[in-house]
Amino acid sequence: MNRQFFLFAFLCLSIALEAQITVTNSTFPQVGDTLNLAVHANPAIQITAPGGPYTWDYSGLEAQVDQQIIFRPASEGSIAVSGATMFAGYPGGIENYYSSSANAFLLLAVKGPVGQVFGVESVFHYSPPRVERSAPLNYQDVNSFTSNLLVPFSTENIPSEIIDSLGLPVVPDSIRLRIASQLTSEVDAYGTVQLPDGDFEALRVKRTEALDTRVDVLLPFFGWQDVTDVLLSGGLIPGIGNDTIVTYQFLSDTEKEVLVEASMDSTGQNVQQVIFKNGDAVNAAKDRSIARGELLRLYPNPFSDVLNFEARDQLPGALQIQFFTADGSLVKTIDVTTSSPASVNLAGLPVGSVLFKLVNDRGEVLQSGKLIKQ
Question: Is 288 part of any domain?
């Protein structure tokens, strides 16, 4: 009887193990990749208890906002970051700089607003680099990572009411943020994720990040002084002190996008926002499909400064792309003479909506649409 029981238990364990995937570094983004994502705020979805196998039915997620994240060589970015091999632009004018190894996809630096603390644009470097993804990953793996940020600011960029709230006898020479991050990554569940885009076998990773954000001021003769507690008592700066951020990532062994990334509220129990895979990832070295009825494909959308475009093999004569601001002002024209992928630099256009028309040599509009410059 005992022998039959252990044999049965072994068979059940074998079946469960076969149902689990291993996520490898083949899913790390590379230069030329475009990840197609969408955002759904306050979705009516639940996070199950650890374990598996589960079927997570997220097929009702809605693409309230589309995102295309394109990874370009780091040399094409607006700043130089030592060790970075690629960068990607994000909404809000943010640029993230990355590198990749056999075991980790790393965030080295960020250019853009620091966030809710000061909202001042800056460049800050992670030390050591922040681990965005790790590999290989299997069910029940647990990893811990630490990272730190040290972000200096000139006092000229800080609102005067914040400086006044410190009650200092002199104006500080400089202010800096010290952010310490302790990230625990636990592969706590496995199963099948059902998305509007299809069904995928997945591992679920619970990421719990403990943040300690401190504010220092540089005073003559006294050096750097921690004024975090003073600022906390005044309530002028949200986002400082201690905080815990919980997210759940659903990872496939075949897709470069994170299938689902669910950001939780302060209780860690309710989903505030989901970013999910919304179409196939594209690599610049591979063929891209153009939707039926389109003569031209423009991507990514939203875009930062550089917009790529590609036409069908058979063009109906000489064509021209016309770009307009939201008020209808023509700002740029591009001749399309080949179906080969090409790009145009639109750095001079204002952030916001950009309209385009594809016209022939008789002025007839063959295609039109709207893009978002970020």
Answer: no
320 with 225, same domain? Answer: no
Tokens of 148: 């730190």
Q: What is the pLDDT of residues 131-185, one digit of tens each?
A: 999 999 999 999 999 999 988 877 776 777 777 777 777 788 888 889 999 999 9
On whether both 313 and 278 belong to a single domain, the answer is no
Neighbour count for residue 289 (Cβ, 10 Å): 10
| Rounded CA separation 133/103 (Å) | 8
- Please give the residue range of the domain that contains residue 269: 21-283
- Using only C-alpha atoms, the chain has a radius of gyration, in whole angstroms, of 24
- Is the CB of residue 147 less than 8 Å from the CB of residue 178? no
Output the CA–CA distances (angstroms, integers) from residue 78 to 111, 127, 216, 304, 344, in the order listed: 9, 21, 28, 11, 17
**For 86-129, what is each residue's pLDDT tens digit?**
999 887 678 999 999 999 999 999 987 765 566 666 788 999 99
Q: How many CB atoms lie within 10 A of CB 138?
A: 13
**The total number of residues written for the chain in this structure:** 374
Side by side, the strands of the sheet bearing 296-299 are 296-299, 306-311, 342-345
- Position 219 in a domain: yes
Cα separation, 106 vs 278, in Å, equals: 23
Cα atoms in the Cβ-side hemisphere of radius 13 Å centred on 158: 23
Clarify whether residues 192 and 327 are in a common domain: no
Residue 269 CA to residue 47 CA, distance in Å, equals: 8
- For the segment 252-262, the average pLDDT, to the nearest whole number, is 95
Same-domain check for residues 361 and 233: no
Helix (H) or strand (E) holding 148: strand 142-154
| 276 and 305 part of one domain | no
pLDDT level of residue 19 (50, 70, 90 thresholds): low
On whether residue 132 sits in a domain, the answer given is: yes
- pTM of this structure: 0.70
Reported as a pLDDT band with limits 50, 70 and 90, residue 11 is: very low
Please say which residue of 283, 307, 338 terminates a domain: 283
